[in-house]
Amino acid sequence: MAAENGTLRAFRALVRIPDLTRRLRPWGLVGHMPARRDHRGRGWAWACLAAAGGLARKANCAEIMPLTGAKAADARAFYERAGYDRREKTVLLQQLEGGIQA
Questions:
Q1: What pLDDT sits at residue 13?
Q2: Cα separation of 80 and 102, whole Å?
Q3: What are phi and psi of 10, to 5 degrees?
Q4: Which pLDDT tens digit goes with each residue over 44-56?
Q5: Among 36, 48, 63, 88, whose CB has the most other CB atoms within 10 angstroms?
Q6: Cβ distance 61 to 28 under 8 Å?
Q7: CA–CA dist 8, 2 (Å, integer)
Q8: How far is CA 4 from CA 8, 9, 39, 61, 85, in A?
Q9: Whether the predicted pLDDT of 6 surpasses 80
Q10: Residue 100's pLDDT band (cuts 50, 70, 90)
Q11: From CA 82, how far away is CA 93, in angstroms rounded?
Q12: With contact defined as beta carbons under 8 Å apart, do 33 and 2 qualify?
């Protein structure tokens, strides 16, 4: 979480997911980070992403994957500048309205 003058500017959620591959090393999933356009370009998201990476390393994660919207070209460019490769994995999403679908 990053704050300035008591105002939240950026946050990240890192979820550590156990895995049975990669010598039982977990992987990290970084949740969405909403950012108002007038708060972008100030290093808040960069600092939070670096902190999430540090936490993932401490947790011995084999990899870390951020989530972003499919239409968010600016967010994808941000992650690519940070060293993430969008061609490495594909995520498919199914929205679950009102619980588990039978």
A1: 82
A2: 37
A3: -160, 150
A4: 888 888 888 999 9
A5: 48
A6: yes
A7: 6
A8: 7, 7, 11, 30, 31
A9: no
A10: low
A11: 24
A12: no
The two three-digit tokens of residue 28, written as one number: 């990290």
What are the tokens at 98? 């009102």
3-class DSSP string for the chain: CEEECCEEEECCCEEEECCCCHHHCCEEEECCCCCCHHHCCCCHHHHHHHHHHHHHHHCCCCCEEECCCCCCHHHHHHHHHCCCCCCCCCCCCCCCCCCCCC
The arithmetic mean of pLDDT across residues 48-67, rounded, is: 91
Distance (Å, whole) CA 54 – CA 58: 6
The pair of structure tokens assigned to 21 is: 């591959």
Q: Which amino acid is at 2?
A: A
Please name the amino acid found at residue 61: C
